Amino acid sequence: MRKILDGVRVLDLTQFFSGPQATLFLAGLGAEVIRIDSPGGADQVAVAPPYAGAGGVSFERRSPDDLSVNYLKRTRGKKAISLDLKQPEGKALFFRLLDHADVVVENFTVGVASRLGIDYERLSAANPRIVYCALTGYGSSGPDRGLKAYDVTVQAAAGLMSVTGLPGQPPMKAGTALSDAIAGTFAMSGVLAALFDRTQTGRGQFVDVSMVDCLFSLLFDDPIDWYERLGVPVRQGNRILRFSPINTYATSDGWAVLGAATAGQWTGVLKAMGREDLATDPNWSSLDWRVANNEQVDGLLRDWAAARTTVEAVETMLAAGGVASEIRGPQELATWPHLKAREMYLSLEHPTLGTLANVGAPGFPLKFSASTVGYDSPAPLPRQHNEEIYGSLLGLDPAEIKRLAKAGVI
Fold first, then answer.
1. What is the tens place of the pLDDT at every residue in 136-186?
2. Rounded distance between C-alpha atoms, residue 250 and residue 176, angstroms
3. Phi/psi class of residue 56: alpha, beta or left (left: φ > 0; alpha: ψ in -120 to 50)?
4. What is the mean pLDDT of residues 252-277?
5. Structural domains in the chain, sorted by start
6. Distance between alpha carbon 17 and the CA centroid of its chain, in Å?
7. Can you name the residues that pair with 32 across neighbouring β-strands?
8. Half-sphere exposure of 57 toward its Cβ, with a 13 Å CA cutoff?
9. Cα–Cα distance, 19 to 7 (Å, whole number)
């Protein structure tokens, strides 16, 4: 089966996580993604801790083959070239590449692309069909557009940290770089929408993606601005304020999520605990009462779970019709048959060493009935595709490529 984005070429000017996440997903859909690094910075991107190599993962680089784990994951399925956009010859080469491209993705700080002379206005004048995606912390407009952003600052600015953690405890960030990953996913969606629009209009457009906007749009579904006015803490820990019970509970050998989101599931919870007598109680059968008296409801499940193993608690709750899941750690994810069956937990591939034992990487999360997805090649070595792209695509002869490399242009 063909891939959905076969024939689409992306010039990837991104770095860190959010931008590379967007272009990784585009590569997974079949686009030819050409990663462009500066000649002096290409190696630094690939060589940053933690490293993965023949000896596994380490915070110290133990051999020349050791490459950044993040680089190996984020650049799968991509090609890599080097190009100095600050040199006139480098900029001229970029505009020649633009003639063959459909999409440009960058996550520079606002203003950098203009200073380099590769902003949307200039690129669209040269190629009106280009889709240009700028992924920034605060967006390309608004009073804070010039602020630098990192995942933790975006989680703070957009409000996620304010609602994450236990009641009465300090705010917490999510355990992973969630705002980066979310923004990269939105950016991929924006590029796809602009490509679809181009099929109707024949023209590309500017896609403005803000990390803060993306995170806030997902965060503000619940009325968190009313929590304190409703007399409840903004930070709710692991419970869901709309339901009771649903929380994390300690078992005799670990932790599990247990609870109910519907009346039928609440009946299942009572059945699992052998407390069907509460099903007809006017208080316990009322969701409003349970939400208002959640600590009392939590205590019932807390005592029940503490007397059982995680497996026993989860299996009993599911069999009775309640909500339940064990809380898997990284090692459990590696052995979860469901992720294997969905081709979501993959072994990480290395460009020179092949498959790395016991080093995992996520597969492509979307599945299609008539199209294939995934990453067809491991992360490239820096500059690996200079000759292919500059020679085959732009038609430069070997002597010219050698001259450009010696001059530091590529």
1. 999 999 999 999 999 999 999 999 999 999 999 999 999 999 999 999 999
2. 23
3. left
4. 97
5. 9-218+343-406 (3.40.50.10540), 246-330 (3.30.1540.10)
6. 8
7. 9
8. 12
9. 21
The answer to whether residue 1 scores a pLDDT higher than 90 is no
- Residue reference for tokens 């600050």: 86
Distance CA 66, CA 48 (A): 10
Q: Express each pLDDT in 87-103 by its tens digit.
A: 999 999 999 999 999 99
| Alpha helical stretches, state H, 293-336 | 294-306, 310-320, 330-334
For 11-39, the pLDDT digits (tens) are 999 999 999 999 999 999 999 999 999 99
Show the DSSP H helices in 2-103 as ranges. 18-28, 42-46, 69-74, 88-98
Query: In the structure encoding, which two tokens stand for residue 93, read together?
Result: 């080469």
Distances (CA, A) of 6 to 245, 372, 384, 390: 48, 11, 21, 21
Write down the residue that tokens 């703070």 correspond to: 156
Which residue type is seen at 351? P
Query: Which strands, in side-by-side order, build the sheet including 51-53?
Result: 56-58, 51-53, 67-68
- Kindly list the distances between the CA atom of residue 88 and the CA atoms of 75, 91, 273, 394, in Å, as whole numbers in the listed order: 27, 5, 73, 17
pLDDT at 43 > cutoff 90: no
Give the model confidence (pLDDT) of 199-241 as tens digits. 999 999 999 999 999 999 999 998 999 999 989 999 999 999 9
Q: How many CB atoms lie within 10 A of CB 41?
A: 13
User: Quick one: DSSP state of residue 367?
Assistant: -
